[in-house]
Design a protein that fits this description.
Elements (H helix, E strand, L loop, with lengths): L1 H15 L4 H13 L3 H13 L5 H13 L3 H14 L4 H13 L3 H13 L5 H13 L3 H8 L8 H14 L3 H14 L4 H11 L9
Helix pairs in contact: 1-2, 2-3, 3-4, 4-5, 5-6, 6-7, 7-8, 8-9, 8-10, 9-10, 10-11, 11-12
């Protein structure tokens, strides 16, 4: 009953404040919190149509779109937020993760590097750069950030995958060094063992994790 009453009050506020960006932004926020996501999205789009959207409005809209699984629209909105505010930390993180899911590793890496340039060099960012670098084929970047890794439990996995990154560039000596490094961390780790064996009889596919 209270929720229905709240929704009725919000509908009234939406009507009264239809030309007021601040009122509409708050109404949309409360609709979202009450689980009325489509209504909230409609209001945010209305604010944008009035040409009065700021970075927070677009960010809130992008979050709702992402939550609804409308990934392409969310990506588009996050990019527009960064045009308004290039240093919006949460937006960079959300967008980078979505781009990784889309296998756009180079674009994701560029965003993680932007965080690093903004001095957000925490364990999460360092691990993300090391990982995205591998998939983007930027093996040297991954090497640099592997050395900065601190709290990860995945040293051996990173070492194996950096080896694969180099092997895909036919830099087999560098690959060998990294696979040996992975084995030094865990002598029973099968992936680098298999990869070193395959080096004897290339070309064969390499084992990643």
């Amino acid at each position: 009953h209270n929720i229905n009453q709240a929704i009725q009050e919000l509908e009234k506020a939406k009507e009264i404040g239809r030309d007021n960006t601040l009122v509409l932004t708050n109404v949309a926020k409360y609709f979202g919190e009450l689980g009325k996501i489509d209504e909230a999205i409609d209001i945010y789009n209305k604010i944008i149509a009035q040409n009065s959207a700021n970075d927070v409005v677009r960010y809130n809209l992008a979050l709702l779109l992402e939550g609804k699984g409308r990934k392409d629209e969310a990506i588009s909105e996050y990019k527009k937020v960064l045009e308004l505010n290039p240093k919006y930390f949460q937006v960079i993180l959300h967008l980078a993760l979505l781009l990784e899911q889309d296998r756009k590793y180079k674009d994701a890496l560029d965003l993680y590097m932007r965080l690093e340039n903004m001095n957000y060099e925490d364990d999460y960012t360092i691990e993300k750069i090391a990982s995205a670098g591998i998939y983007a084929g930027e093996c040297q970047v991954s090497e640099i950030f592997y050395k900065k890794l601190d709290l990860t439990t995945n040293f051996k996995v990173f070492a194996n995958n950096i080896g694969i990154c180099w092997a895909q560039k036919k830099e087999y000596e560098k690959a060998k060094t990294w696979w040996e490094k992975a084995l030094a961390i865990d002598p029973n780790y099968s992936e680098p063992k298999d990869n070193l064996k395959r080096l004897q009889g290339l070309p064969q596919p390499l084992t990643t994790q």
